[in-house]
Design goal:
9-stranded antiparallel β-sheet; 743 residues; disordered N terminus; alpha+beta; 8-stranded antiparallel β-sheet
């Protein structure tokens, strides 16, 4: 080893020890030995073993195995194999400081670069680094306290924290102790600490992520005691976490999704307009609505059927899984007729089998349900919809049975699957799955439900892209094609105000298709201004799906003439932007980059932007500011300093790095395009069955300050899975060069 490098490391370590050693990891934990193992390094201590593995140059996995316990090898989240033989280490000692072990990637040590892990042997302590930059350190190793297993980390004083799944807390989530337990929050508005997606992932503005790779329920304490600590608490399970580090935000998300998987491209029709409400009671009602869209020339790509497709009442019918023939006398013909006009059918399904349903006796006899502690008798309980059991999707025979239900529906012509109540909504802890007690898989039930559907498609419909709308999921759910939505949001201005934060946070956590029930779901609040502002925001959303309780007209075609005309403009713009939006989805598929992006992605050193959710990037080229209050006539907007920006509707130019008060138009929300951008658009179409790029309009936003710019348009048939990998696609590249005399 080069002694100059050793000296440099020693100085670095010395100051780190001074700053951090006030918190020893565990005064009773003693270092014993270090050794190479396949795909990692093992460090033996007095009360167990640490296993360190690498998943690439900036992803480190740490596992602690206490003495007398076995490691649970299965991860629900990770979709990548660890690097083989990627680590090496060196030790140093000095009379002034305790001995240290420096763990390197092999190529980094060969290049005389900085270590990624420093282990202080006495007192024992682990710290993590990225290119010589300190990230975080364990304050207290895994331990048991009041029946909860805990691990605690040191935070920097001014560090801001994101992630933890789906919440409404403000962008910076530091200061909360948050439950890791998926749970619906009906009618939420501007604050919610517990919702449908609780993910054990913390993201720091210091450009690292900390993912606790364990499905069990628990808590994430993000410095609620104001002592600069981050604590993970769990009821059991794997003692494994990954540290992901990066030089910029896009690289961080790209690295995290390389670990947990990337979203497959949805079918192109999923980027169109949905007719959806709770719900369509009959075939005739559904036909009338679809015909109304066509008569008024409002684009439409799908109709979504809520609970009434299998029963006339909400209660007592979950588990029927077949069309109620009194209300839907010829569902196969209905679905076919819709498809012939370019409208796809999406059906809601639930994992609950009520004791009053048509499938109760069959699922009970075949032992497809979760059980009590005896593992023999189905566990039944009451909830809003009736007395119920729960499908145990962890049993192979249940998976096959459930998939056969879906297979029959898909063969009938159904194009999209909606998985509802998948937290599961009521999931008693006394209930047992074949893999263990409820708390072991509560947070991954929706995740594995989506996996079941995706695997079924791959086996039986390998030429189709699934559309899987799910209310609950987990880390890595995006790789199963899950399209999440933000739950039963209040139909109010407060409900709208929370949606940008939710979508931005979830996009950073890999779930780039998070969206909301446009117009809001819960409540009979009849406000056409709110409805239109929500739809205008929805144009620049991953999914455009209005949805509401049945008392409220959620579909544009059911609105009064004036409101319908304005809503129609938003729907039409959604279709005009489809070439741009579909290209965004391709970028997400290839790199994990979210479609909606926070402003701090572009200005990471601007502390004022870390809490901003009210303005965001739609892809790389649009800057969007939704209007989330009634009667707004002007609003203040910050224009990021990286570019000049042009009003999408008036072409007015706004200079980079300025804050401007702009007028607000009732027909659209403030929308700006980056100087030098290429925006491909089409004329409005009735639905994606007539989508074509034989002709399209290319809009170039000339800015004399932009010397060179690039753009790209991605296209495929919108149906074939992995079309890019199969080389069944086209990519059109654009570029501009500007000088004083020419463009």
């Amino acid at each position: 080893m080069d002694h100059r490098i050793v000296g440099k490391v020693l100085v670095l370590v010395f100051f780190t020890w001074i700053n951090l050693n006030a918190w020893s990891q565990n005064p009773t934990r003693q270092f014993k030995s270090i050794a190479s193992i396949p795909a990692g390094i093992k460090v033996t201590v007095s009360d167990g073993e640490y296993i360190f593995r690498s998943y690439g140059p900036n992803i480190i996995e740490t596992t602690f195995i206490p003495n007398g316990q076995k490691h649970e090898a299965n991860s629900h989240a990770v979709d990548k194999k660890p690097d083989e033989n990627s680590f090496t280490w060196a030790t140093t000692s000095n009379t002034l400081i305790p001995p240290f072990i420096h763990i390197y990637h092999k190529e980094d040590r060969d290049k005389k670069m900085n270590p990624i892990i420093l282990i202080q042997t006495n007192p024992f302590k682990i710290t993590y680094w990225h290119k010589g930059r300190y990230l975080l350190s364990e304050r207290w190793g895994y331990d048991v306290d009041s029946s909860m297993e805990k691990i605690q980390f040191n935070l920097s004083k001014d560090e801001k924290l994101f992630g933890t799944g789906n919440r409404v807390l403000g962008m910076d989530r530091r200061g909360y102790r948050l439950p890791l337990y998926n749970k619906a929050h009906y009618g939420y508005e501007t604050h919610s600490e517990q919702m449908n997606y609780s993910m054990p992932l913390v993201i720091s503005d210091r450009l690292y992520a900390l993912h606790f790779d364990n499905s069990y329920t628990g808590f994430l304490d993000l410095d609620s005691k104001k002592d600069s600590s981050l604590t993970y608490e769990t009821t059991g399970g794997r003692k494994t976490y990954q540290v992901i580090a990066a030089d910029n935000w896009k690289e961080l998300v790209e690295s995290y999704t390389s670990l947990t998987g990337r979203q497959p491209l949805p079918p192109r029709w999923a980027f169109g307009n949905f007719a959806s409400r709770f719900g369509y009671h009959s075939e005739q009602e559904a036909r009338t609505v679809v015909s109304k869209f066509k008569a008024d020339s409002i684009p439409l790509d799908a109709i979504v059927f809520d609970l009434y497709w299998f029963g006339t009442t909400i209660q007592g019918t979950l588990g029927n899984f077949e069309f109620h023939r009194d209300s839907f006398p010829n569902p196969k013909q209905m679905i076919s007729d819709f498809k012939n006009t370019g409208v796809k059918t999406v059906l809601i399904t639930e994992p609950f089998i009520l004791t009053t349903s048509k499938t109760w006796e069959e699922t009970k006899a075949k032992k497809l349900l979760c059980t009590d502690i005896t593992c023999e008798k189905p566990y039944t309980y009451d909830f809003y919809f009736g007395n119920t059991g729960l499908l145990d999707i962890y049993k192979p025979e249940t998976k096959q049975w459930f998939w056969n239900i879906y297979k029959g529906l898909i063969e009938m012509g159904v194009e999209g699957i909606w998985g509802d109540l998948g937290e599961p909504e009521v999931h008693p802890d006394e209930l047992y799955h074949v893999v263990g007690r409820a708390n072991r898989v509560h947070n991954t039930y929706g995740h594995d439900w989506a996996r079941l559907i995706q695997e079924g498609y791959r086996a039986d419909f390998s030429n189709k892209r699934p559309f899987i709308l799910m209310r609950a999921g987990y880390s890595g759910s995006q790789r199963f094609g899950m399209v999440p939505w933000s739950g039963d949001v209040s139909r109010s201005w407060g409900g709208l105000q929370s949606q940008m934060e939710i979508a931005l946070q979830m996009g950073m956590q890999g779930l780039g298709y998070m969206h909301s029930d446009l117009g809001g779901f819960a409540g009979d609040y009849f406000d056409n201004e709110l409805y239109l502002r929500w739809l205008q925001y929805g144009v620049f959303n991953p999914i455009f799906r209005p949805h509401a309780q049945e008392e409220v007209a959620s579909e544009a075609a059911r609105k009064d003439i004036a409101t319908m005309a304005k809503a129609k403009k938003s729907v039409e713009l959604r279709y005009q932007l489809m070439p741009y939006n579909y290209t965004l989805s391709f970028d997400n598929n290839q790199k994990g980059i979210p479609l909606m992006r926070p402003l701090f992605f572009e200005e990471p050193n601007n502390p004022g932007l870390t809490t901003v959710a009210g303005t965001y990037f739609w892809g790389n080229n649009f800057l969007i500011t939704p209007i989330t209050k009634a009667g707004v006539t002007s609003t203040e907007i910050y224009f990021p300093k990286s570019s000049n920006w042009f009003d999408f509707y008036t072409n007015e130019k706004h200079n980079a790095g300025t804050t401007v008060t702009v007028k607000v138009n009732e027909d659209y929300i403030p929308t700006f395009v980056r100087g030098g951008s290429f925006i491909p658009m089409i004329e409005t179409i009735q639905n994606t069955s007539s989508y074509s790029l034989d002709n399209f309009n290319l809009h170039y936003y000339f800015d004399e300050s932009v010397a060179h710019s690039n753009g790209m348009l991605y296209n495929d048939d919108g149906v074939t899975p992995n079309a890019f990998e199969k080389e069944q696609y086209e990519a059109v590249h654009f570029s501009s060069d500007t000088s004083a005399k020419s463009l």
